[in-house]
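Hi R.,

Here's the chain you asked about this morning:
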Amino acid sequence: MNVELVDFYPFEVSTRRPRLLAYADVKIDGKILIRGIRLYEAKNGGYFISMPEYNPERKRAIVELEDKELFEKVRRVVVDYYKSLISAS
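And here is the predicted structure, written out as tokens:
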């Protein structure tokens, strides 16, 4: 499966961890568009993503990637793009 980064919106909201770093939109195989993936910096300094949610009280994801390999591809595309932005600064 091909995972393509469509848009990336970097910012820093807080200094405490986990810290929200950016929002990203990705397209999978040119057929599925996922908007609003959140990129966080973890307490240990690593990065993780969170899928978009429609109900903030229930924290239930609109998109659930049950294939771990596909989830890792999406995470890798978002994290690699963020790292290229911060290394270019």
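One quick note: The mean pLDDT is 87.

Cheers,
M.
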